[in-house]
Amino acid sequence: MSIKEGELVELTDNKNVFFLNLKSNEVFSTHKGNIYHNDIIGKEYGDTVKTHKGKEFLILKPTLYDIIMYGIKRKTQIIYPKDSAYITLKLGLTSDMKVFETGIGSGALTIVMANAVKPSGIIHAYEKEIKHLQTAKENLKLAQMDKYVHFHNKDISLGIEEKDFDAAFIDVKEPWTHIKHIKPALKKGAIIGFLVPTANQIINLLQELERHSFLKIEVKEILLREYKPIAERLRPEDRMVAHTGYLIFARNK
Amino acid sequence: MSIKEGELVELTDNKNVFFLNLKSNEVFSTHKGNIYHNDIIGKEYGDTVKTHKGKEFLILKPTLYDIIMYGIKRKTQIIYPKDSAYITLKLGLTSDMKVFETGIGSGALTIVMANAVKPSGIIHAYEKEIKHLQTAKENLKLAQMDKYVHFHNKDISLGIEEKDFDAAFIDVKEPWTHIKHIKPALKKGAIIGFLVPTANQIINLLQELERHSFLKIEVKEILLREYKPIAERLRPEDRMVAHTGYLIFARNK
Amino acid sequence: MSIKEGELVELTDNKNVFFLNLKSNEVFSTHKGNIYHNDIIGKEYGDTVKTHKGKEFLILKPTLYDIIMYGIKRKTQIIYPKDSAYITLKLGLTSDMKVFETGIGSGALTIVMANAVKPSGIIHAYEKEIKHLQTAKENLKLAQMDKYVHFHNKDISLGIEEKDFDAAFIDVKEPWTHIKHIKPALKKGAIIGFLVPTANQIINLLQELERHSFLKIEVKEILLREYKPIAERLRPEDRMVAHTGYLIFARNK
Amino acid sequence: MSIKEGELVELTDNKNVFFLNLKSNEVFSTHKGNIYHNDIIGKEYGDTVKTHKGKEFLILKPTLYDIIMYGIKRKTQIIYPKDSAYITLKLGLTSDMKVFETGIGSGALTIVMANAVKPSGIIHAYEKEIKHLQTAKENLKLAQMDKYVHFHNKDISLGIEEKDFDAAFIDVKEPWTHIKHIKPALKKGAIIGFLVPTANQIINLLQELERHSFLKIEVKEILLREYKPIAERLRPEDRMVAHTGYLIFARNK
């Protein structure tokens, strides 16, 4: 199926990654030369396109992973794929589910969770900062996942209107202060997840989860180690991200 | 919605996890006493049931995560959620995709990938060992994901009949020997992933991927560290799984 | 130089490791046959000895590392070489230093620190449990490091008699309660180290160290990953020790 | 004991670390103001000195750890304390030992090993690059460990003159090509260690060690994770050194 105007494409030459929203007659300038949108429209994913200087780029349909890593605007610290993929599976997300999320930051996790609950599920996303909400909306739109998200410009400390959530994920500074608001909005047996960067936050959160009779409480951490992909000199990268956040999960009783 | 006969339920008392396929009049014996299926049928998820000795169990709708960790038969080393969740996101799986997988072993990854491509996508799963295929089928059925999988009792070294795969995942002993069969079955731009346990396998694989002009080759490893969830004495578990496998990803050109 | 009666030797056949204190005419029974001490006395390190069944063992002079890992009695959780080696270097230990340690547990760290301060330095080791002190003494003797240690059957909460320590290492349950006793016993500029297993303990300790004006406070953790040493299938071991303790260091001001 | 001219001192204000070789009447300029050497001479370690702008610095006797991390010239990738401390303990180094090392690079490991074999042991250090040898000599002198090292401007591929080494450490690009030269120079039962950055090197080395009948071959890797030492927000640092090198150890038979 050929690529059409309006589609989002990813161009890569293995060093650079560019995202283009295709419009006929437009030109995209790179340090390797100009790329004419018209040269891409009508081609197929996996084809190549050349700049006016003759440099070749592969045309890719961007995956959600690539959109999160290279495409979205980052106005906040995002939740990375190593964590968001695990969170989504651990929460048990599947199509048709109704999920609560706050804060959504730049929406990186929301994209992954929306993909898991589509086509008939919904993410209710609370974000008190209007500017973050705008960024998240744009990013969800870029990922074509916005229709599976109901955005609320709301502070969770004022309570949650909706009920009967199948799952919830909380990424705010003092999540323990909100357990009392979240618990009544969850179905019994629903899984709730949290991301917190510090040990102090885990400690506060564990106390509050126990106080509210949550079950099967788990604390985890995921580390991603990358290797230089060179057959003759296989070795880990010199440096790595050593910490994004601790993940906490529990079952509502 | 009340729980019906024929449903798969998970029972937990925070120490034990049991899976029951509900049949009226049946009894399930545990060391904490007998549980009557009839006492569960008609209840709701999140309710509790008592054994004849009065011990309480929480009734949960099992998530795919729980099914993989506690429910499926393991006849082979399985691919764990920390890896399968990441693989699924990295491959760019989304509903409607057509995905190739071999070998499927006990089907733990297949379950997660099937959930990602449903409702209208399909996993073509090749497995040369008929006994593994049977186990995988049973496990996929348990997870209610079997209808999104086309099982083939086939050895990939005899080639792949289907074409135009959006993505592929290969978990066999000598994956480099099969690149020539897999490449023609992939769409251009499709992402292929591999799991191999040894550095020697990575080295062989990298050489072959380069020889076949795959792009954006990445080698990664995911480590999951678990913590004792005790507020007063927060600390990592004493021991951890230190290695499952290396993950390799590449784009077909 | 030939091996003499009274020496401690290590025997290994690459599967088993045995420690023998050589006495003429004695016999050591193994499941691979009997080993006669007389067959070892007079040989050299690096030679082999055979059991009465003809199975060969290599005769090694045990290193401190081997003594700690295989030779000493473990009545408590020991501090492993990955940690004790780093602690010793971080504390700046060198010959002639006067070092304070409590509690000493089975003496595994004491052995390594004693080796670093010999020939003219001294470790003052406080241990309130008499049975641990006895075990530690035996273990230090086994490692031939006992003459560099002054053992005190004392509880640090009653204060420290000695003064002017160059360095100190504290491995007790509530180290923050003892800072006020330890500080006056340290030289200005001396480095103090701690091992604690939980995040809560780190938090308490950091508060107290700041309150007492310690400088250059550092919190670290050392992970040791082992690989299967097989050239054809190089890979990490399946499981690893995921946590021994957090290490905290500071300079006395 | 008061600080004298000619001594090496470390100054720190918890943000900056400076090393000074004290000479009377000299001045050291910092962005926090000038420090007069005369203001330090005659003081004691642990005292403070003020710049002409009134900023206070703590005067410390530098530990080997600090000299390696902040003091030495780094003309090559150095072996860090997390590795050098472990290597030294694993090799079984203790005073009076005769140890072989090549290549020595900037001498960071040599400093730690020299400290372990002093006062009467010796490190024979081979380095084929004269410029590295000069740097290493200067660094060993800075650490006051040069008298325990015999420096050889030699390429190990031309063989080793000395005999009867108690231990050896090899940090060169193709260590497997030198096993045949090193083995005859080792005592039986001696431990040999290697650092290599890539998996390919481990594989080559394991093959050669087996071919030469080395025993108890081990492959290890040490990871150091650092935490932000803040009591209210305890958490790992965002990034870490993910790889320095793999450590391989074996016993000479």
Strand line-up of the largest beta sheet of chain A? 9-8-7-10-11-15-12-13
Task: Round the mean pLDDT of chain A to the nearest integer and report it.
Answer: 95
CATH topology of the largest domain in chain A: Rossmann fold
The helix/strand class of chain A is alpha/beta
Number of beta-strand segments of chain A: 15
Helices and strands of chain A, in order, run as EEEEHEEHHEHEHEEHEHEEEE
Q: What percent of residues of chain A adopt helix (DSSP H or I)?
A: 10-25%
Give the count of structural domains of chain A. Answer: 2
CATH second-level architecture of the largest domain in chain A: 3-Layer(aba) Sandwich
Looking at how many chains there are and whether they match, the oligomeric state comes to: homotetramer
Biggest chain contact: A-B, 65 and 65 residues
- Beta-strand residue percentage of chain A: 25-35%
CATH class of the largest domain in chain A: Alpha Beta
Q: How many helices of chain A in DSSP terms? A: 7
CATH superfamily of the largest domain in chain A: Vaccinia Virus protein VP39
Shape of chain A: globular
Uncertain parts of chain A: none
Structure, explained:
The structure is a homotetramer of 253-residue chains. Chain A has 253 residues and is of the alpha/beta class. Chain A folds into 2 domains: 53 residues, Roll (Vcp-like ATPase, Chain A, domain 2); 186 residues, 3-Layer(aba) Sandwich (Rossmann fold). Chain A is 25% helix and 32% strand. Chain A contains 7 helices and 15 strands. In chain A, the strands form 3 sheets. An 8-stranded mixed β-sheet of chain A has the order 9-8-7-10-11-15-12-13, sandwiched between helices. In chain A, helix 3 runs parallel beside helix 4. Chain A is globular, with a radius of gyration of 21 Å. Chains in contact: A-B, A-C, A-D, B-C, B-D, C-D. At the A-B interface, strand 6, helix 2, helix 3, helix 4 and strand 11 of A face strand 6, helix 2, helix 3, helix 4 and strand 11 of B. Strand 14 of chain B pairs antiparallel with strand 14 of chain C, so a sheet runs across the interface.
